[in-house]
Structure to design on (226 residues):
């Protein structure tokens, strides 16, 4: 069973630039959630994708957007990067959302640094 | 907005000691999960508690869900260096959409 994989593992961007982070979900999982974890804090929910549509969104501005593909992989896009966007971005997959919640399986994250 | 506060924020103890981590909220959750996260890795699920008053044991770890489903605790008996990590509680609001994570407790167990 292949786990959740994220790429890249580390990224350095300049303020104002755009970034795309990628996530491959665990085999058999159809739902992908993205979280932002600032240094020393717990993860904050960004949004969730199910059947290629956004299904729930946290308190993040529209410059945070995403996609889910037919193979259930996902992308997180952030436009007009700000210094406060520096964080660990975690992707988590789960399955059978239509049967209720199921445990999240997290990837190891992408460490984004905005300078 | 649902918030989960964990205490203590940091805990440094010696091997063999016992400890308890608390997770408190003013909101009711349909279930509560505990995760452990090690440096450079994503959180790994330890347990899910669903019923108010429920107690679950995982080797030396004991998890309890409050009767009102607003709070939870994690007790570790005879801590070992391998228990070192960031412990996170997370509440499920029942929509199957998002988890609300706590502020985290960083545990260090030394020899």
């Amino acid at each position: 069973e292949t786990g959740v994989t994220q790429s890249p593992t580390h990224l350095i961007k300049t303020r104002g630039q755009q970034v795309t982070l990628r996530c491959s979900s665990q085999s058999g999982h159809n739902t992908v959630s993205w979280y932002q974890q600032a240094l020393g804090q717990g993860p904050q929910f960004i949004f969730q994708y199910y059947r290629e549509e956004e299904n729930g969104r946290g308190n993040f501005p529209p410059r945070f957007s995403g996609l889910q593909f037919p193979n259930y992989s996902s992308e997180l896009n952030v436009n007009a990067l700000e210094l406060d966007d520096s964080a660990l971005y975690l992707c988590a997959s789960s399955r059978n959302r239509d049967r209720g919640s199921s445990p999240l399986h997290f990837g190891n994250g992408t460490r984004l640094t905005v300078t | 907005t649902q918030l989960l506060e964990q205490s203590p924020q940091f805990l440094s103890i010696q091997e063999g000691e016992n400890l308890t981590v608390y997770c408190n909220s003013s909101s009711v959750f349909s279930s509560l999960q505990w995760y452990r996260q090690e440096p450079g890795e994503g959180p790994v699920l330890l347990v899910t508690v669903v019923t108010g008053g429920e107690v679950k044991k995982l080797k030396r770890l004991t998890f309890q869900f409050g009767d009102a489903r607003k709070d939870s605790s994690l007790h570790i008996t005879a801590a070992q260096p391998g228990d070192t990590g960031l412990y996170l509680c997370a509440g499920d609001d029942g929509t199957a959409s998002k988890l609300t994570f706590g502020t985290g407790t960083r545990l260090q167990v030394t020899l």
The radius of gyration of chain B is 13 Å.
